[in-house]
Amino acid sequence: MARGGYAGKILRVDLTARELKDEVLSPQVLRQFVGGTGIGARVLYDEVPAGVEPYDPQNRLIFATGPLNGTLVPGSGTFAVVTRSPLSGFASAGHANGFFGARLKHAGYDAVVVHGCSPDWVYLYLNDGRAELRDAAWLVGKDSWETEMALREQHGQKGMDIGLSVACIGPAGENRVRFAAICSDRGHVASSGGPGAVMGSKRLKAIVAEGSRGIPVHERDLARLKGLIKGWIDSASSSPFGRAVSKGGTAGFFSAAENMGWLPVRNLTANLFPDHPSFDGASLRSTFKTKPRACHACTFAHCLLMQVTTGPYKGLVVEEPEYEGLAAWGSNVGIVDAGTALMLNDLNDRLGMDLKEATFCASLAMECYARGILNPDDTDGLDLSWGNAGAVEELLRRIARREGLGGLLAEGVMRSSQRIGNGAQELAVYAKKGFAPHVHDPRGRWSILFGQAVSNMGSIEGSSLELSAAPDLGFPEPIPFFSKEMVPKAQARTGPKRQFEDTLGICMFLCQGSLQGMVDTLNAVTGYDLDKARALEVGERIINLLRLFNVRHGLTPDDDSLSPRLREAIPEGAHRGRSIDSVFEEMRRAYYAEMGWDPETGRPLPQTLQRLGLEG
Ligand code: SF4
What is the mean pLDDT of the chain? Predict the structure, then answer.
């Protein structure tokens, strides 16, 4: 039985009845699912039956921490948001780093489970084990940064990052844009699957968490605990990915991504982006002014504030975008000025939208415009030519307000393309469950492409085993980029590891090191006695429970697939001519078999569920 790591209770919020109730999770559930996405998956499966649609008041919105949150483990401010997604109709789990996950624990809660729908806009205030709903009418219409700063001032904390944390929605969430995000600690965004739209449907504008409660830790020998943490974090920092992120942020991969043919260029119609050097991390950090802004207890400290020093947005201060933000608002929409991409990334966060879906919606509209499928009448006069930054800016605002073409695009890439018609479906970039992919050209990297197709939530649940070996998982050497045999195997073995990591409440960048170090630290904090195999089994259990949830809500093998654009051959560059199309179905069957699922239906087999202690 665990003795440490948990605050000891979760909060139930019924917004219809305006009732708040503490509840204790059973030790068995904690042991089987640990925290984060795991706890969210258990609650979602148990409480959202077939027929409960994403905007139904009975849908659950679960904010969940893990046992390492709020401890001295670096990067332990991360939290998970789990719900039934309005984009796909299946399960979704988004994560955000920063401080909120730590402060939710310091406020006295391991998780907050919200259901119902408030008649008026409210926010939830949590402080040292107490919870109350307060009026939020005065916050409606404010963007995510304005909302956070207004609530900070309301609660006597004017500076950034100190004292309390706010997780909130912007205008996109209020207007139920299907890919609305939940933003916390300015610039940390839980967005996959559109949890902000579910929050908006419940008229919950924000959660404020503050408190001073310590987190009990099982290990009495503090020196031993610190030694374990140090060993693990050192292994993460010295991994190739960890070293690079720690030094230059994920933007440091921008030029490498272009060289490898992984950069999305103009809705994947091209593969080369000659302006890539000015977007690369080293160039950004030498051109623009920066100020460090680390998350809770983080020693990687790769997050920065950045001030634009050249071009039309000179003087603007924003969060430094990750690689994906730069690709989204640079190459994918044809913008060649890095300062402009920073402005658009900041705007997208403030409006409160998932950048994956937002950029592939914008680039779909731009390609349709270039091909004459959309004309100026359809765009209310917006000139959506590639690279027109003013038009992209206005388009994002219209999406958040659901105005004109923006209202159509607010439905997400898949639905928008169906409604536009006239061949737009052939151009749209999405995995068939209804999610846009991460902001890569994944056709040049099958582990990402295949992983997004078959994952329960359309996210990257697998690791990039073509870039580094993973002896812990049985891969002593990196796997080939385009192997129809190795990619499904790698997905089946790395998915459980990623899901296990997502139970802990720490940033994924800190999870690049030894699995043994991670498990030892978890055991020391909680008092569990997991070994590596049992840890991976936790991840496998979560994947299977989410799959059962998705099957209940209508999942078929066709949903584990890709849009026509993602099955096309790459038009140019390092991997010109490559396509997954002819081998995709064979790979999917192989993955199902590796997972212990029926190779034809993708449903978990009874013996698999029995092994994992799950019901059928
Ligand atoms: S690595 Fe970066 S995102 Fe992760 S916790 Fe540290 S500063 Fe935050």
Answer: 94
- Position 462 pLDDT exceeds 70: no
Q: Residue holding tokens 């008229």? A: 203
State the pLDDT at residue 504.
Answer: 96
- Please measure the distance between the N-terminal and C-terminal CA atoms of the chain and give it in whole angstroms: 26
Return the CATH architecture of domain 249-424: Orthogonal Bundle (1.10)
Per-residue pLDDT tens digits for 508-522: 888 888 899 999 999
> Is any ligand 1 atom within 6 A of the Cβ of residue 507?
yes
Q: Is the pLDDT of residue 362 over 80?
A: yes
294 lines ligand 1 (CB under 6 A): yes
Closest Cα partner for 445 from 475, 477, 478, 481? 481
For the domain 10-210, what is the CATH code? 3.60.9.10
Is 242 touching ligand 1 by the criterion CB < 6 Å? no
302 lines ligand 1 (CB under 6 A): yes
Task: Name 126's bridge partners.
Answer: 131, 209
Strands 19-23, 10-14: pairing is antiparallel
Could you give the 3-state DSSP secondary structure of residue 330?
coil
Residue with tokens 């059928």: 616
240 Cα to the center of ligand 1, angstroms: 16
Look up tokens 């390092």; give the residue. 574
Contact by Cβ (8 Å): 268, 429: yes
Q: Look up the CATH architecture of domain 446-612.
A: Orthogonal Bundle (1.10)
| CATH 1.10.569.10 segments of the chain | 249-424
pLDDT (0 to 100) of residue 410? 98
Q: Is residue 233 within 6 Å of ligand 1 at its C-beta?
A: no
Q: Residue with structure tokens 């402080």? A: 127
Q: Is 603 helix (H, G, I), strand (E, B) or coil?
A: coil
pLDDT over 70 for what percent of the chain?
Answer: 99
Rounded CA separation 334/328 (Å): 10
For ligand 1, say whether the CB of 97 is within 6 Å of any of its atoms: yes
| Inter-axis angle of helices 338-351 and 144-154, nearest 10 | 60
The average pLDDT across 326-340 equals: 97
Minimum CA distance residue for ligand 1 atom 7: 301
Q: How many CA atoms lie within 13 A of 192 on its CB side?
A: 26
CB 14 within 8 A of CB 116: yes
Which has more confidence, 6 or 463?
A: 6
Nearest CA to ligand 1 atom 8: 295
Q: What is the pLDDT of residue 418?
A: 98
- Could you write out the DSSP letters of every residue in 100-161? HHHHHHHTT-SEEEEES--SS-EEEEEETTEEEEEE-GGGTT--HHHHHHHHHHHTT--SSS
State the amino acid at position 248 in one-letter form. G
**Nearest residue (CA) to ligand 1, atom 4:** 507
Residue 258: phi, psi to the nearest 5? Answer: -65, -45
Distance 295 CA to ligand 1 centre (A): 6
pLDDT of 616 > 70? The answer is no
Residues of the chain with CATH 1.10.599.10: 446-612
Check if the beta carbon of residue 98 is closer than 8 Å to that of residue 188: yes
Q: Rounded CA gap, 194 and 25, in Å?
A: 26
Q: How confident is the model at residue 265 (pLDDT cuts 50, 70, 90)?
A: very high
Closest CA to 349 of 460, 185, 206: 185
Residues paired with residue 20 on neighbouring β-strands, in sequence order: 13
pTM: 0.97
Q: Where in the chain is the domain with CATH 3.60.9.10?
A: 10-210
For residue 278, the CA-to-ligand 1 centroid distance in Å is 23
